[in-house]
Amino acid sequence: MKVIVLENAFEISKQAADIIIRQINNKHGSVLGFATGASPVETYKRIVESYERGEVSLKHITTFNLDEYADIDRENVNSYYYFMKDNLFGKTDVNFDKVNFLSGVKHEEAEAECERYYNKIKEAGGIDIQLLGIGVNGHIGFNEPGDEFMDRPFLVELTQSTIDANSKYFEAVGAKMPHYALTMGIGDIMRAKKIVLIATGASKAKAIKALVEGEVTPECPASILQLHSDVTIFLDKESAALLGNS
Ligand code: F6R
């Protein structure tokens, strides 16, 4: 694992965006795995700026997002589809026919939806770069701490830690946060050829220590990344604060 500690979120976003832009310019039909949440927002801004300067086109890429809340409509302002449209896709020339999401279907349709997504990633030839954030509890995608690493996409019941961290977005519009989500499994993430993870802020320090220096265990889902051959982790000083201390 390459662990790179930078001054702030802006510096991180420049380097993370650079890796993604280089990938697209080397292979116009790249398959990219994207994440939502606060961590990648600045990176998406840098990609949009590059697009506006004519340095990159997203026209031929295929995208797969990590996760989506269950029981939610894609036009809901809190859906992850909406987030990606707002932060990246709608501001570039991305071809929406090549944008893939786990859809926020009802529980009873989740199994078929997960199977569809797994096959779709396979048909696309796998993911070239998967961008990740990390939860304060060590989750990646919505793979919450548990007893096993899940291989394929699945329906997950969110933990209280995740509900506490994300409820603010729903409360802001007077809505209640769903307690279930559909997410890529750990296997789907690990099959990506390259992984880039971004974390900032002191609240992530414990999870980062467990990811980089802890044992590989489903109790910290991100720790599995130690076993991937091409992972770059971008941190600020706050999120890196516990590294190296026993
Ligand atoms: C979002 C996702 C989550 C987030 C994580 C960190 O698609 O998969 O794992 O990356 O919850 O969220 P932020 O970046 O908001 O701290």
Strand content: 15-25%
Strand order of the largest sheet: 1-10-9-6-2-3-5
How many individual helices?
7
Strand segment count? 10
Rg from Cα: 17 Å
Provide structural commentary.
This protein is α/β, with parallel strands linked by helices. Helices cover 32% and strands 17% of the residues. The chain is built from seven helices and ten strands. The chain has helices at residues 9-26, 41-52, 80-87, 110-123, 160-171, 186-190, 205-213, and strands at residues 2-6, 31-34, 62-65, 67-69, 99-100, 129-132, 154-157, 180-183, 194-199, 231-236. The strands form two sheets. A seven-stranded parallel β-sheet has the order 1-10-9-6-2-3-5, with helices on both faces. It has a three-stranded antiparallel β-sheet with strand order 4-8-7, with helices on one face. Strand 2 (31-34), helix 2 (41-52) and strand 3 form a beta-alpha-beta unit. Helix 1 packs across helix 2 (41-52). The two termini are 19 Å apart. Fructose -6-phosphate is lined by residues 35-39, 66-67, 80, 133-135, 139-141.
Secondary structure elements and pairings:
Elements lengths: L1 E5 L2 H18 L4 E4 L6 H12 L9 E4 L1 E3 L10 H8 L11 E2 L9 H14 L5 E4 L21 E4 L2 H12 L8 E4 L2 H5 L3 E6 L5 H9 L17 E6 L10
Parallel strand pairs: 1-10, 2-3, 2-6, 3-5, 6-9, 9-10
Antiparallel strand pairs: 4-8, 7-8
The chain binds fructose -6-phosphate (F6R).
